[in-house]
Amino acid sequence: MTFADEREQLLYATLRIRRVEEHIARIYPDDCIQSPVHLSLGQEAVAVGTCAPLARTDMVFGTYRSHAFYLAKGGSLREMMAELFGKATGCAGGKAGSMHLTAPEVGFMGSSAVVASTIPNAVGAAFAARRRRTNAIVVGVFGDGATEEGVYHESLNFAALHRLPVLFLCENNEFAVHSPRSARQSYDITEHARSFGIAAKRCGAGFDPEVVRDAVAEAVLALRSGAGPRFIECATYRYAEHVGIGDDHQIGYRPLATCNEWRARDPLLNSRACLERFEAPIAAEIEDAVAFAEASPWPTPDALLRDVA
Questions:
Q1: Which own/partner pairs from 241-248 qualify as long-range (CB within 8 Å, at least 24 positions apart)?
Q2: What CATH number is given to the structural domain containing 284?
Q3: Is the pTM for the entire model greater than 0.85?
Q4: How many structural domains compose the chain?
């Protein structure tokens, strides 16, 4: 695939993730996907912009909403689709599903359904990288709701105390399921991170992968120089419901007008002409991944206890 410039390459990666998730939403009612799904529709640019400045050896720890980060970091689409189908060729042998994707061969170290649980994993990996002098950096991804968990505060404190090479990346879509942040938090997320002595900034344009890339690239440069942990809060918006494939604006907990404001700034919706040539190859790749998943074998009974400590 050739690109006119780096921005086009970033938009291609963002479009690829969106089309994958739109296809997942289309086939989900057929019951071929053996897992609940938390779609990243609307939030794809955060993942693409975050992963763009990273090396293959850098590590990313995700959340239960990690299709976008898995793909942006280089995870196999075939293996992701097979995992969603519950097949043995999936990235976790068909036993993990959508919320527990992993591709350590490209530095996507895993994701978890338990809110905030991968944040200390990211800090531990950064501590190990520091001790081993590998020059790798680690990104811990989490939502705004995770900042309410005790382990989040403990992790920021430990990382700051030991000046670890970890980037805390908060995807702030303003809601924990249906609860707005204003009803849950008395603090400003970015300012609170600074209280630990961590250099922190807010990226308000989480819809634009280039803006996110620039913010993360600055943090990556500081991390590689040994400057200690960094924190970025990315404002973003999920188009779909918290879990599932539907549109839940009719419930009334968030106004449709806000969604339309985000859509009006969405480069995938406003750059259709320059992205049109990518539609066919992306569609072909998705079709191939689905065919691979459909043709793949189911896990055998002896796989049940495999990889269980």
A1: 242/38, 242/175, 242/177, 242/178, 243/36, 243/37, 243/38, 244/36, 244/37, 244/39, 245/24, 245/25, 245/28, 245/29, 245/37, 245/39
A2: 3.40.50.970
A3: yes
A4: 1
